[in-house]
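Reply to dn_fold:

You asked what the input looked like. This is it:
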Amino acid sequence: MLTQVADKLLEELSDPSADFVVVVEGKKDVEALRRLGILRVEMLNHYPSVVDMADALAEKGIKRAVILTDYDRTGKALAYKLGAALMSAGIHVDWKARAKIRREFHVTYIENLDRIVEAMERGEKNGKNIYRLGKVSHSRKH
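and this is what came back:
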């Protein structure tokens, strides 16, 4: 079962009238978020650089972004680099939403978020133990 905070967070991210965009790394991340009903998603891999992405989003009139790169070392470094570029382009970065996703779902790779949510909804352990229990297969080698 989802916690009240987790449920509210997913509801906010999937709100079609929201004034923000969710930024992810790749296609599998986009697909996972779409399965959760989160449709306002931009994929970093569509742009030559983080600066190009930030400029393109600013030109589209985006004022706020939630960065959901992976929570591994590479993803965290990318998040901070992207955050700096977005802020330089005048786009507010919602770091709290990023932290809440990590805290509530214990996710490392965004492409697994939909499966983690499904496992939590079935009443399985709060995300963090579902890999160990074999309930969700790893999509990447660690």
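The two ends are 27 Å apart (CA to CA).
Hope that clears it up.
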